[in-house]
Amino acid sequence: MAAADVLSPLATMKSACEPLIKRSVTSSLGTDDFDPMKHIDFKPPSQIYTMSDLNLPEDTGVSPVAVSEPFQFFTQEAIHRMRAEVLSDAVWSNCQYSSNLAQCQLRGFAAKYAPFVYDTWKNPETLAIVSKVAGVELVTEMDFEIGHINVSVKSEQQKAEELVAYAEKMSTEADEGIAGCPWEDDKPIVDWHTDSYPFVCVTMLSDCTNMIGGETALKTGNGDIMKVRGPQMGCAVVLQGRYIEHQALRALGATERITMVTSFRPRSPTLPDDTVLTTVRPISDLSELYFQFSEYRLEILEERIRNQLKKMRETKRGGKRTNTGSLKIFLKEQETFLAHMNHEVVEDELVKMGSVDDSHLIDKSEPKKKSRKRARLN
User: What global pTM score does this model have?
Assistant: First the structure.
């Protein structure tokens, strides 16, 4: 499907959003390649929550880690270099998408239009840091998912009106002694969902100095809502989002909120790959998405088969009998692996662009909208 066919419903969004976004001053930025010694400023997160901390089964997912507190990741220069590439005319003209989950997203641009962003997430030092926080060795999911951008913008007037409404609501709740759902919960940037990929690293590209809200809300195993504070500019959060329902809450006090979401999967071919394409299929160039998804999955299968052949040949050379039971288990696992791939590659004509159904949700019931239960803020 041609990019123009996908992007035509968004023709007016660029003109509505771009003037409100503060562009980086490119004349003062460097043009050198990504250098981890210069562009990474890593400080470990103050706390990392496990799946059991969220009352989820310990064996859920590919790591015991659920989510980190925000941590310093990149220098200010690195962030401004990323912003300059992300906000370029080429990216906005060719890589903009929208869905019922999020109104403005930029996808699939890094390899072609954003070399600094691409090199940042492919760098071994970057991968080592993300892997350390996640508790498992990771690689980028695929090139199309490097640097996915979620954009939320508003005018100065809208910002002021929201702050007044928020102050009035907080005052009313204090007078009445009630603890209602925070003001921004009704208007999330990205609604309740699970990610298509095992892990994500969410990096903040906006100045959050005067921002109120902007947290990530997580559904715990017992139905409560836990919130993790939103990162500041240059900071990041690592989340095992494939297995945890979550929501990006709208922030007050700022005219823009731009986050960069890069997806990851386990490096080891022996670990499960539970990647689905549910939330990304309707907002992607299907030809490129299906190629990259199939390429890395077939490479995993290839490596698994090579490892199995090695074991079988060693058994044969050792004069031992072929373990039929073990062989059948291996073959059944690969049948399941291929069947899953086939299920995720939906015919182009059956994909409704911009429309994400609820099959990605763990809890298919209506998401909590106006709960009176105070959410945990960590």
Answer: 0.83
